[in-house]
Amino acid sequence: MNRRRTPREVAGQSRLVLDSGSFLGETLDVILAARAWAYSVTVGVALVALWPGLDPTFEDSFPLSNYPMFARPRGKPFLYQMVGVRADDSQLVLGPKLIGAREVLQAKVLIQRAATSGKKAREAFCQEVATRVLRLTKSSPRYQGIERVEMLQVQFDPIEYFEKGPIPLSRKRLAQCAVTEAAR
Amino acid sequence: MTWSLRSVGPSLNGWLFAPSPAERLALVRLLICGFATGYLLFGSQALLNVASFSAKDFDGVGPVSILNEPLPGEWVVAIFVLACVSGAFATLGVKYLVTGPVFALTLLWATSYRSSFGMIFHTENLLVLHVLILASGRAADAWSFDSWRRPPPTEERQAQGQYSWPLRALCIVTTIVYLLAGVAKLRFTGWHWGGGEELRIHIAFDGLRKVELGSSPNLAANIVRHSWIFPPLAFLTLAFEFGAPLALLNRRVAVIWSLGAWGFHVGVLKVMSILFIYPISGLAFAPFFPIEKVVYWARDRKAKSA
């Protein structure tokens, strides 16, 4: 059934008739090209966006992601942190700015990366943080009295942390360095 | 209703190319490109800070994975500026055929680059994908500088569905993002994620991590003690994630699903202090709805009152 259709008819139909010699034929060529582009983009984007969910390696990336937030079982994970220690052994957790990050999760990654990169990397990172702390000890009372910086690996039970209090299941010091002018 | 390839073809065409006004896609462009440009400007410090990050922390993701080491700082700034300028032009619809793709690609690069230093910012994925899709369609045929200078044949294109398919593509990608989040929960943890205990541990861990890394505590401390809350919360989360594709069926389902997804993000913000600003703004769900009617309604109201 080869009858010519108006563009409006074509808009709702899948069967297209091509007649390249006429004005309508040219219009249909344009419509066909536009539709091919539309299908390519829509199907292409959908498949590409779906891929991370089908990818056997299940690696996360950007902007295509498998959105693993809240998905992996947590159990009782280890956590790496940087603390400032005073002469009386009291401790102060050092926040993201002192770690060299803006966000807390970025700070977490930076500490974790240093913690798992060998002794030299841990000590260098510790020195970097100590230098930032030293600058603050002069201007902020909160950081006054901090004598050394420690990199710790701690483990908590997440539920018990809030139900019974912040008592670590385990605690290990990975690096330490003095907060002195020598750290500059 | 009988299903066959013969019936699926035309109905898919009819759905994808349903006549839709140029103004709807144009308003989505104005909102989403405008939001993305504002996001760049307000987040400029975070996006530019990476220029001074240590090379040893660099691990390229997405398109940035072609680099073995970070770009010189001037390049980071130059790409950022290009993204902001092209974003402003794309929002206003100035030479959109050029500025739209340039904006989409520079936004993709700038956000990917930011995520290449230790932490992937999952709050930006959907926004970037949406701007990429918008750049591939005729999103500036109305309410734009281009259309004001040279009015395009919008009626013809409307009948051909050229303003419809980009909106459909935006909706498809939105639902895929949520579906994948559900799939990840089953792949990593299994169906027992729906029992609620894993969600409770996640919220508790997120709270303790923030406290132990020197940030202020959030609502996690209060909510984690009430274990009964979590099974219904986990069930609802999975239901909205796996039910996301249903939002493509019709507008009523889309309303219910969008409200549910929006509510989920509000909950995440309240409990975990994680701001998914794009969905919370509501703009991520705008392509599902005839939003141009709001403009007509406001215009009519103004005319009546005048």
If you compute it from the alpha carbons, what radius of gyration of chain B comes out, rounded to the nearest whole angstrom? 22 Å
Strand content of chain B: under 5%
Shape of chain A: elongated
Distance between the termini of chain A: 85 Å
Q: Can you give the mean pLDDT of chain A?
A: 83
Give a structural overview:
The complex is a heterodimer of chains A (184) and B (306). Chain A has helices at 7-12, 23-54, 96-99, 104-115, 119-139, 158-163; strands at residues 78-86, 91-93, 146-155, 170-178. Chain A is of the alpha+beta class and 184 residues long. Chain A is elongated, with a radius of gyration of 30 Å. Chain B is mainly α and 306 residues long. The longest helix of chain B has 24 residues, at 165-188.
Primary descriptors:
heterodimer, A: 184 residues, four-stranded antiparallel beta sheet, elongated, B: mainly alpha, 65% helix, globular
